[in-house]
Amino acid sequence: MIVISDDALTPSPAVKRFFDDTALPALTISISESEWNNLLEAYDKDNHTHEYVKCRTVTLERDGGTLKCADAGLRLRGNTSRRRPEGHSGDKHSQGDVRWRRVHYGLHLHKFNEGGNLAGIRRINLKYAKEDPTYIREHFCYDLLTRYGVWTAPQSSWCRLSLRVGDSPAVYMGVYMMTESIDRQYVRNRPLFGADDGFLWKCNWGANLRDTDSRLFHLDDDSSKEYVYDLKSDDAADLVPATAQLKDFISNLQHLKGDSFRNWISRVCDVDLLLKMYAANVALGHWDDYWNNKNNFYLYFNSRDPFNYKVYMLPYDYDNTLGTSHNCGVQHDSGRQDPYRWGIDECILISKILQVAEFRDIYTQYLRDFSTVDNPWTGVSQSAERIRQWQTLLAPYVPNDTGEDMEIRDRPASWGNHSEYRLLSDDSKNWFRVKAGSISSYLK
Fold first, then answer.
1. CA distance 426 to 440
2. What pLDDT does residue 1 have?
């Protein structure tokens, strides 16, 4: 297995300082009433709008100091979680009795200000605890991936978010998770990629890495329509060579067999890192992923050469984890699913890799890291200690002016199919205990 120094496994110091999960800074977004109404109108026209509106200022107060950015871009984010942030369709902002809702936001700090940033950070995703009464699921996963050596994991922490529209007093929206955006800056902050000028793809639902229909590939132009493969680039000329490269990867993935496949995938993919990430995904119960649901991942090719590159699968969107289980793909219980049959055969990247005995052995060794109830990553008491520290930090600030998500509770999402799972109990319902026992039972 590849051994890398701890320093190389972490993102840049500026990123680590910004996403400090031992602090809870106050983030205030100030926006004119007219720009806020533009955001509401854009949503009413298209509830999946990616349109940005201009903020007056974004202010972050932490460590006794204040960071400020003027003219940042603000947009709505989310897929099934999308909703109007205020009032009813067609309503403009009311300074009286406002019906506020917690929604996901994206901050693009240099959208309207070329030098815009907060402590060097240029984009931030803001997520509320939608259907996660524990408030910690997604951050737990990113934190674990980072500590486990999956250096591609985005960084995250929390803030106390307030929104000031026009001259009205600021409205406290509650505790939000701040997540590092997967973009060109994310790539630059991770020197282990080897190069930062390659092609970055966001892979949406349906991305099985088998189909090569040209209609599936598109330049991400901030329009509301999502394609299966969206190229993250500011240069439209990149789409043709990037698509050719990805299609070639998909074609080889489908057609190469035996030693030809093993030699090719070893050359173009960091297989060890991919299997390490997937062992962690299984331990975290991340069923809404590439392997099981053709969803929620990025691909980064570290070269523009159509044949000479390394491709990396980047972890993304871990809110439906740690016992929030669902009937999806081959799964009915993410706590007890066979880790060697975690997903559907259609998603051949993982299934073909695991057909190679050498690679299957590597995956098995990584699974062993999560197969005991006292392992340092997802052990019962070890996990509970981290969760309680974070919840102690957040709990006083969870009540908010929207009246939504007003308390922390140890439960999975209400729509899940296994409501019994708990993260802090020390009994047969404890997610980490169930998962360790399940993984252990499948190891050979």
1. 18
2. 40
Amino acid at 259: D
What is the C-alpha to C-alpha distance for residues 4 and 305, in angstroms, rounded to an integer?
26
Q: Where are the domains of the chain?
A: 12-127+153-186
At residue 301, the 3 state secondary structure works out as strand
Helix (H) or strand (E) holding 203: strand 199-203
Unique residue bearing structure tokens 């047969």: 428
Copy the structure tokens of residue 346. 């259609």
Here the tokens at position 431 are 């997610």
What is the pTM for the complete model shown?
A: 0.96
Do 124 and 181 touch, CB atoms closer than 8 A? yes
**φ, ψ (nearest 5 deg) of residue 37:** -65, -30
How many angstroms from the chain centroid is the CA of residue 422? 22
Pairwise CA distance, residues 425 & 417, whole Å: 19
CA distances from 209 to 203, 295, 344 (A): 9, 11, 12
**Residue 410: is it exposed, middle or buried by C-beta count within 10 angstroms (0-12/13-18/19+)?**
middle
User: Splitting the chain (444 residues) into consecutive groups of 10 residues, what average pLDDT does each group show?
Assistant: 50 88 98 97 95 97 94 93 92 85 97 94 96 97 98 98 95 98 95 97 96 94 88 96 97 97 98 98 97 96 96 97 97 98 96 97 98 98 98 98 97 96 96 98 90
The full length of the chain comes to 444
Report yes or no: 343 and 291 within 8 Å, Cβ to Cβ: yes
Residue 79 phi, psi (nearest 5): -115, -90
